[in-house]
Amino acid sequence: MAHAFNGHGFGQFLGDVERLLNAAREHERQLTAFATLLEGEGAGQLRLGAAGQRQLVEMIATRLVGPLAAIAGSGSPRARVLVVDDSDSGRDTTAAILEGAGFDAITASNGLEGVIVAHYARPSVILMDVTMPVLDGLEAARLIHASTVTRDLPVVAYTANPQVVEGPVRRWFVEVLPKPAGAEAIVALVQRLVASRA
């Protein structure tokens, strides 16, 4: 089942992260003081080890976009596809088609959510509607390509109005897939883009 980005939950999550970081700093201060007492003045600061850091990152990613982000580095053979569309039915249908073809799908309902999810989930391919509220697909694709974290992610303009993606804005998209597209066309395009990144 596709994982949908929760914008309200994201706001609450940011508050939780700040509280968690403050608590971790206080905990580290207390542990450092305790270690200093046990080992004398030469004891250095205690640091979160690699395994602890990985666990913290996985917990944060899971809270943001669901358990798929937590297994990003686990060798899962399923490529992840982000579907960004303000149409509930279009988004859910596209996600179901992709999951039926063996991909993991994450969904977002506007361009801003799409940019956030792209940064945290690092999908193999992004299918981006162009006309959306909050942040349209053109600006979202531009922001994705402007970031060093996500600039290499292939973004496909998935739109009912393909002539909108012409001229200079075309450079933000690797392909333009006109809506409505059949399941075979969607799957073939995503498979080709995933294979080109392997």
What does this protein look like?
- This protein folds into 2 domains: 4-65, no CATH class; 73-197, 3-Layer(aba) Sandwich (Rossmann fold), CATH 3.40.50.2300.
- The model is unreliable at 40-47 and 68-74 (pLDDT under 50).
- It has a 6-stranded parallel beta sheet with strand order 1-3-2-4-5-6, with helices on both faces.
- Helix 5 packs parallel to helix 6.
- It is of the alpha/beta class.
- 52% of the residues lie in helices and 13% in strands.
Describe the structure using short key phrases.
7 helices, 198 residues, alpha/beta, six-stranded parallel β-sheet, Rossmann fold, 52% helix, 2 domains
Short summary of the structure?
The protein has 198 residues and is α/β, with parallel strands linked by helices.
Write the layout of secondary structure elements.
Layout: E1 3-4, H1 7-39, H2 50-65, H3 67-70, E2 80-84, H4 88-100, E3 104-108, H5 111-121, E4 125-128, H6 137-146, E5 155-159, E6 175-178, H7 183-197
Parallel strand pairs: 1-3, 2-3, 2-4, 4-5, 5-6
Order of helices and strands: EHHHEHEHEHEEH
Strand content: 5-15%
Number of helical stretches of at least 4 residues: 7
Uncertain segments: 40-47, 68-74
Classification by helices and strands: alpha/beta
For the record, the CATH class of the largest domain is Alpha Beta
